[in-house]
Description:
The structure holds two protein chains of two kinds.
Chain A: H1 3-21, E1 34-40, H2 47-66, E2 75-81, H3 86-98, E3 104-106, H4 111-123, E4 128-130, E5 144-146, H5 154-167, E6 175-181, H6 184-199, E7 203-210, H7 218-227, E8 231-238, H8 239-250, E9 258-263, H9 265-270, E10 278-281, H10 293-308, H11 318-337, H12 342-351, E11 354-356, E12 359-361, E13 375-380, E14 383-388
Parallel strand pairs in A: 1-2, 1-3, 3-4, 4-5, 6-7, 6-8, 8-9
Antiparallel strand pairs in A: 10-13, 11-12, 13-14
Helix pairs in contact in A: 2-10, 2-11, 3-4, 5-6, 7-8, 11-12
Chain B: H1 6-37, H2 43-60, H3 69-89, H4 94-116, H5 126-129, E1 131-134, E2 137-140, H6 141-163, H7 165-175, H8 177-182, H9 187-212, H10 224-234, H11 241-259, H12 265-279
Antiparallel strand pairs in B: 1-2
Helix pairs in contact in B: 1-6, 1-9, 1-10, 1-11, 2-4, 2-9, 3-9, 6-7, 6-9, 7-9, 10-11, 10-12, 11-12
Amino acid sequence: MNYSKRLALIxxxxxxxxxxxxxxxxxxxxxxxxxxxxxxxxxxPLAATALVHKVVGEIFVEELNKKDGLLGRPVEWxxxxxxxxxxxxxxxxxxxxxxxxxxxxxxxxxTGAILSAMGVAQRYNKVLVHHTFGMPHLAKYDMQFATWxxxxxxxETFTTLLYDALAKSAKPPKTIAVVTSKFPSVHFLSxxxxxxxxxRGLKEVLYLEWEFGNRDFGPIAxxxxxxxxxxxxxxxxxxxxxxxxxxxxxxxxxxKNHFYLYPAPGPLSKSPEGRNALxxxxxxxxxxxxxxxxxxxxxxxxHERGAKAGLPDTSVDVQAASSYSAWQVxxxxxxxxxxxxDKVIGAWLKxxxxxAIAGHLRFNGPxxxxxxxxxxxxxxxxxxxxxxxxxxxxxxxxLIVQ
Amino acid sequence: xxxxxxxxxxxxxLSGIFIGALYGLLGLGLSLSWGMLRQINLAHFxxxxxxxxxxxxxxxxxxxxLATLLVILPCFFAFGVALHWVFxxxxxxxxxxxxxxxxxxxxxxxxxxxxxxxxxxxxxSHYGEMKFRIGTLFVPFPELLTLLVAIALSLATWAALRYxxxxxxxxxxxxxxxIAAAFGVNERALALLLSGLAAAFxxxxxxxxxxxxxxxxxxxxxxxxxxxxxxMIGGLGNPIGPLVAGIVIGVSEALTMALTAPAWAPLxxxxxxxxxxxxxxxxx
Lengths: 402, 284
């Protein structure tokens, strides 16, 4: 290249860099804040998981305000403690709307509280985007939008997915035990699992139900051991799965293959008895999920903020991902419509899917549900990895069936 | 319908005995303070869980889980003394003691959640790995220890109340404090002692809880109903009563779960309570 051409290139590069420097930096949000109100179970039996949602919300709002906020305005998140009580959640949502006069609502944690909040949102014609509703058939309000992507009929779709995974494994199970809590959002799925097992030709060797809050899992563990199924579906929520595993260990029984519906993910993966346990998920900390740069950045931030908040397990899984997705859905709709009008936002969401870290979320199906985006994950080497469907499996991970 | 195996029945029976012993151990301090001090100490359950969390914390720092009692017991004894001093100072009635101790329970629960968060904590210790085998039945060491401790403490307390001068003085003060005082019994000092002991028993129950169970602050309330049932069935102020009643309840629940639907188990303890209340209402 001759001298003059080289000089021209250098000059062009310099001009380009100068031009870039003239671009204005993202303007800090200004003006009165947009107030988004919600409750969370900051105390009470659901507080452990609600803390995850609190951390996610704080991360999202902070990131939003570091950029240009929402519609150019800063966002303020008002979160109240519903103490894990749906009746209190109802009262607090009324307060958020009538006293605090928030602009937008976001859903609380867990099915009971969301159902309460839904009733209030309906009364005031507010959009309610929520992240942890476990009973799609009860989501009757027209302007509610769920990011817990179970689909409208998870008792059929998710159980089909799970049994497909087992059927295609190296050693498909032939007998099944279904043991379940009577907690509402768990129970109906367990009944679905039972019915689907019959349709798939699995022999049911045991079916048991216990009241939510049961303390003694010894006899249940003994009955499972006696039945010795190839596969156990454990309709457990939170601590119950751990208590059952503890009880099975005490009678020297290790289940061959076991699935937990809504486990406490950290304790289960770290417990030696949780080896090869299966569960449902929509996101885990590996490719292809973390190939999304937004998801990857969120994972890193969550590790940092989760550790500061004292979370024993700072992995991003279905709870954190669904929560983050709820914020993504709400803010995407507001940005797209340039509006805080709930009817406008609701109408937009029904017509437009949102690509969130939980997946491609659409809200135009029955009860505003879209596809069942759940996957099957398994504890392998002390961590959760997705194993089915295979296109979402962690690199090198395969479903282990004994 | 398949008949349950003898192993299943035997293992369930053991499970019921073990959990019943824990009911009894939790109920021991409650029964003493309710029956002899006329204080319905709801905070007893929160104290037990605080003891469990302290056991977890100290054991995680390297202390033997059983050795943690050397630290926990004196602290809890002091707390129990202080609590009763407050009750006596403000002349709190039995009904008001329920309200006050409910407030103390909420404070302790919040403290636990603030320090340890609401997430689950599980003490992994070598005791948890130990179990014995009797034929086809398994006897886990932590549960066996709970049973032995419950029996030892209940019997020791009963023997002390029955055969020692201190025990007689305590019973006299419980029956009629002014007359006991007239006979030279320092009923105030004895009440402080008894309250301290009841709190210390909560600490012991907490250590047993930590060895056997996964902990969460909200679990405090899961034990209240059934332990109250054990205390009421066993008789207020009776050290052995809650243990016997607890084991009866535990075994009934366990066999119900083994033979029928586990969801029916909660019916058992409260049906028993109703029957006992109807059969001997004068106890209350």
